[in-house]
Structures
1.
Amino acid sequence: MAEAHQAVAFQFTVGPDGIDLQLSHEALRQVYLSGLHSWKKKFIRFKNGILNGVYPGSAPGFMLVLAGVLSYSCSVFQPLCLCFCSRYMSVQKQMLVGGVMVGTGLWIAIIFSMRTVLKGLLSWHGWMFAPHGKMTWQIRLWLILVNIFSGMQTPMLYSFQNSLPHLPVPSVKDTMRRYLESVQPLLSDEEHRRMQSLALDFEKNLGPKLQWYLKLKSWWASNYVSDWWEEYIYLRGRGPIMVNSNYYVMDFLYAFPTHLQAARAGNIIHAIMLYRRKLDRAQIKPLMLQNTIPMCSSQYERMFNTSRIPGIETDTVQHMSDSRHIVVHHRGRYFKVWMFYDGRLLLPREIEQQMERILADTSEPQPGEETLAALTAGDRVPWACARNAYLRHGKNKKSLDTVEKAAFFVTLDDTEQRPESLDHYAKSLLHGKCYDRWFDKSINLIVFKNGTMGLNAEHSWADAPIVGHLWEQVLSMDPVKLGYTADGHCRGEPHPNLPGPQRLQWNIPPECQTMIANSLSVAVALANDVDSHIIPFSDFGKGLIKKYKISPDAFIQLALQLAHYRDKGKFCLTYEASMTRLYREGRTETVRSCTMESCAFVRAMITQNQEEKLCLLTQAAKKHQQMYRLAMTGQGTDRHLFCLYVVSKYLGQDSPFLQEVLSEPWRLSTSQTPLQQGELFDLVNHPEYVTTGGGFGPVADDGYGVAYVIVGEKLINFHISSKCSSPETDSHRFGNNIRQAMLDMLNLFELDKKTLK
């Protein structure tokens, strides 16, 4: 094979005339180009590290300060140099060096002053609580100051990291008050009095001691929540991450760029690698609220070259600084595909060429290879044991390292997925056959036989908006910027000398195959229990909701409350994820969407008159917005309670209050997947390029998981999941209740408008 010949840079033979060296110039050329690429990347990272380190300072600013200092009076700075260079420099040079030293010091002082002021400005969040559409003079002045102290140059992805404030620790008293308020609609009067007693005891006795440790951590660490959240919520979980933790993202809802599986993979893989290059160079624009207020970008760091490594007690996240290959799975075989040749990234048609070679390969899987990835889908302890005992030796170690150190994982799925069967499509992305995705990889790209595709993402390293940002850019590039030929192939020509993919080799003993089979049985049972339902709700969207001066997110959350009450006849503890990326290394906070106001509105929909319903809807929406803003600004309840619980465990002091709070099940778990880069999609002229969004598995055995994405002005996609084994849930029934709740709530405004006329 061509790659086997080019893998050896030189050969030699010993004869009567001496040693005869046979150099492979092509191999040496590839070695040279590979090293050149590596050094370029190191230089770019070094340069970006300096630029980020001095932001909001810049080279022009430095030259301006230096010129101002030197032009003022060089003689002032001569004494600075006398002590160490008066014997080696003239007076003029001494004055010049002194001026440079003072100018540099002044520039550094200005940078740190600007950064300190900016951090103070970003710690103020009064702008978020102002009435919608109203801009006070205080907010205008604040925005002007933020713009001034953010610097004049275009920021890179990590430019604002050192200027972001630390997540504040709420007071124990405020957290107790908010918690008791959140559970009031779910408890009887007697149960609520009991919880009040437990909360008061905690607030007076154990709470202040635990709070002291949290305060100490908040002063020392970048974020007092995020590292514990990653470790205890994700990495220490010993159950399967498939369905329970990993989530999925879908393709376009209506567009089908090509029917060729290899071609679609070629364009998408190339687009992902282009995004990775921009990420390596920090050329991705940081997400800015109102184009002014920066959000934390730390979660982007581990998007690629990352794998979750199983352990007996806890998993770890392994991140490589670089990876030049991907691993492709097809019909139970694993292939290593290099992404670079001739010192450059492979073009889409060249990647398609590699995918075609894999699809044409008729070799059979080696014993145990076909279902190997089921280990990543089952319980974590058996996977850790199998990995340590059987996969860390000989050829298995080399192949496993290739998988775990790949940029990302690709599955060329041998099934077809179509939009008329979105429910089946969602289940395939969520779990597939339970052995054809490597669930430990940060990103799994799945390309189906008919060219449809999607992602499956591991959750510990980052939250869904980070993957969503990548996916939006990839989808926007695929049909328009990259495009396809008339017969569905990628544009361009195949490479005549491109080395083919390398088949990974495994030697899996019978004992390991037994462990694989056990994990597969666990995973299949879990997958078969998932009931998924996707609703593209197109009756109306955020455009109409905003006309009635209601937050679209609040409107949807109230619809979910109404739908759940109609579905089960009761209220439940509700989880809505909000972000805390206004703070350094912020991740998420919980908005407890079931409130006294939302329950009053739902009851009114059953019994009250039209005017009463509309009034209560407005009040409930305002309450929800208030709670969402509190969560975003570090004044939520659940992350604080979680960290207090972690400290109590470290101290070996049990708290009946915390134990009860953290054992409460979230029977309705919800999350909005925001469209962050709407400017990438021209939905007016190309409405077919709407995204379907993504979803996740159910959190509680008897509950629902609901993800939703607001696309454009007229479409909201709901992704609903539950467990088939629960007699209380039915995803299709709940979907019908959501649709009806949305229509009934809109009808309140429509009827009110007719009454006013």
Note: The first helix runs from residue 2 to 6.
2.
Amino acid sequence: MSDVLDQITPDESTDAPKPAETAHWRREDRGGRITLWLDCEGTGTNVISEAVLRELDTLLDEAKQAQPDVLVIRSAKPGGFAAGADIDGFADLRGEGAVEMLKQGHAVLDKLAALPFPTVAVVHGATLGGGFELALACDHRIGVDGVKLGFPEIQLGLHPGLGGTFRLTRLIDPVAAMQMMLTGKSAHDRKAKKLGILDALVPERHVDAAIDAAAKGKLTHDNGGFKATALRTRAARSLAANRMRSESEKQAPRAHFPAPFALIDLWQDHGGDPQRMQSAEIASFAELLDSTTAQNLIRVFFLRRRLKSGAGEDDGIAHVHVIGAGAMGAEIAAWSAMQGKRVTIEDVKLAPLGDTIRRAAKIYEKKHLSGIDARDALDRLMPDPDGLGRARADLVIEAAPEKAELKESIYAELTNVMKPGAILATNTSSLRLADLVDAAPDPALFAGQHFFNPVSSMPLVEVVSHDLASDATLDRLAAFTAGIDRLPARVADYPGFLVNRVLAPYMMEAMVMLDEGHDKVAIDRAALAFGMPMGPVSLADQVGLDICLEVAGSLNAGLDVPVAETPEWLVKKVEAGETGKKAGKGLYDYGSEKPPKEPADRPDPAIIDRLILPMCNAAVECLRKGVVADAETADAAVIFGTGFAPFRGGPLHYAKVRGDVQEVLARLEKQHGPRFAPDPGWGDFG
């Protein structure tokens, strides 16, 4: 009998209390070590929800009673530790309801922090937001190679709300901690170790040894060092806080983004007293949650999820062949290979193929791929000067220059070469698919897949239909887009599709305003004050003035109401080779000028209306014409394709909230002409 009892774990003993039944956690007892595995039910990604914390609370009580040598918290999900808090659970909370929920969450993490035995969080992959805060409540953090830790809450108009503000600023250099929270940038494995967030960084095979070291008190950290001690006085924090406010104002004005300033105030006022900072964190988070900025940014979060969730899962695409190794083709190829696809890329010249490999290596370094992962991605990316991949690929992406004759000649070469069932997708941004489809090998297997430059930074891809494209083709392209971690927006064939149709008036109206004598810096700074990521003059230079002329010409040839007329001086500038930033000179002279990055303090509202309201008008037009299925998709596509001020919720949401856009457009039409005429769709919108 004694032999049998020796084989029974404490939880299996008839005298021991039965462990709580949990949906999101699994408990493992082994040799004085209790491991709590976070494994959220029904999803491939862990999030920190009210249910997760409630179950953890019970498990912590059990652990305290069991008195193990060490308590370990890990994730059972291969993708990462936890992606953050469950936004669905708090998005609709307000006032006292939000405060009460936060207090309950804090109580659980405080209980974890107060346990009388060593506690260790073993973190891998994405460890963000509430997941990071859970790890911070442990005595030690052991990172597995490749881990990424951060607080992205600022992107939702919030700051950390489960103890992150006071725990991180006490753990590491407070200024470094504040920078992480203010920017939302993540600390990847080695940086996190250097900052002191991680007590150890190890490969998976060494995790057990690192846990044993933590249990024996052999892992230590210095609690932020000398600087942390120096900044525990309010006077010292005030100096640092003022610098932070100045930098934050340049990037995100207080009028539009209250969260950074609330966080700075929080640290300045209470950074020397963790208990007071905890109470202030709860109150500040609840107040921010009720702000217009946070509600709009949370809406954008759901719009992103909506785009991705409608994509389907099975694309049947393992091999991608890219035709054209210019900037766009190279980025598409490099990104697809990074996301696990086998990629071949061809070009009529050899040099761009070599440039593609160099570009890919830089992208992988910027995205913090490990040496092994970068090598594997480069192994999947194969220069193919002979075009052998054409016959083997499941998807051929044509990324040739914007000349219909050239694209048609490529399609002719692909006829009877592509394998049965393979899709041909064009990355055109200015040509109508209706004008290209007759040249395609199989119209049903032909569609648009419009990436935005640079692909490695811009998340949106327009999946463009036409009358002869099959639903299966469009579904597979949407699934492929989501599978390479981009956001598919389904749109119909139309001049400029959706995003360029909405964006073109923004840039072309600026050209007319320059023609009228407006100052280019004042135009750009007004747009930045509205919340655009780049002023229209700077953007035109960035895109290329030659491309702007092509897009404007294409739009004006196909639209019922044209965009602004192109000034003659702009045509001459392009003919002279002054095509923008790529040429060193365009609307700005990049040898002697820098486009403004700071928004105007008192922007002219008339300038903003002339730039922004035509975008709203174009979005309504696209909705009326069926270019896009609904207002939510339109707003999401414009935000993720152009960077349209996310805190305003998108052009259609902004118009709805503002309420007078149609009337202001009518006034602008009288002043400046028919390009401002309110679209007939305004009567149905709103």
Note: The chain has three domains: 2-290, 309-491, 499-683.
